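Lay summary. Proteins are chains of building blocks that fold into shapes, and those shapes determine what they do. In this project we predict the shape from the chain. Here is one chain we studied, written as its sequence of building blocks.
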Amino acid sequence: MRICVVGPTYPYRGGISHYTTLLVQHLRKAGHWTRLYSFTRQYPRWLFPGKSDRDPSASPLRTECEYVLDPVNPFTWWKLCRKIRNDAPDLLILQWWVPYWTPSLTIISRWIKRNTDIPILYICHNVMPHDGGGVLDRRLALTVLRQGDAFIVHSDQDRVRLLALLPNELVVRAQIPTYAGVATQSVGVSAETIRRQFKLPAQRPIIMFFGFVRPYKGLEYLIQALPHILAKLNVHLLVVGEFWSSPEFYARYAREFEVEHAITFVNQYVPNEELQPYFDLVDVVVLPYISATQSAVVQLAFGFGKPVITTRVGGLHEVVQDGVNGLLVPPQDEHALADAVIRFYENDTAAMLQAHVQQNHRDMFAWETLVQAIEQTQHKLQSRVHTK
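And here is the predicted shape, written in a compact code that computers can read:
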């Protein structure tokens, strides 16, 4: 099969960039001719909420691609369309996650639909943005997605949301595959190096919150849970990730609940070669999300063999199985969160969960499964054309 994919890849950072790169690698591994078109830039600097959208990794995850698309330069949209038409693929894969992409993706999709017979598959990382979901967000999503011929989502929640917008469309749910492939060799960096750098306690268990710190991720509830945890366990909380909201907001929570001594904040994006040492340091990853569809951080944790404690929101419970590869609690409930952390360290629960993750995560969340879902979807679209 001939496939064109449009999406971020190196030098851009983050979960969707890694997802795109790994997807293209596995499509090629499966024998499909696959051309990746990426961005000459993603966002104007003033619009990006983080420090930079560039990956600082010394050993980045990368794959062959052509940089064409600038989402604020319409001339590049036409250029991309013509390249895709000349490639004559059997399938065009576009990706949707935030309304910012509405103008460029709408025009590109419409042009392809009007000027070619190429079917369009949208991979929807989020049908609605994490911090949105209002009338405007629904209209923008509908404007783009109505141009698609089929869709892949990563949670039942997003499948329901998408079918509410487009009731008669072909929507396939497929889990986010493992992010173990993001790990690169740690050169000169070890868990002990990081422990010394941030003066982490040597004899205390460490739990970790990992990823961009944004309001919907509920870090404040983990901080509120700490006094209850510390009453039973002498643990240390390591918060690792670039803050997209005020660091002082969370520091104030730590002071208010008198747990500053038990928290270390690492306000930075972690390059690929340092991922393994951070995960080697900790026993469990705790993600107290208030809302979510799915989470690449969960797959990153599993990829490094770590269980996850998280909340029953969105599609997280479809991946984190309570008592099997992690523990689940209600959202916005610091007492339940504290109880889960305490329970994790009791009665060999930690060893049992970790053993299951390490033995099963690659088979449960294989990229081959997503590739097969794409192949089957393309065959269904092809069958529709032949029966018309």
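What the prediction tells us: The chain has two domains: 2-177+366-387, 181-364.
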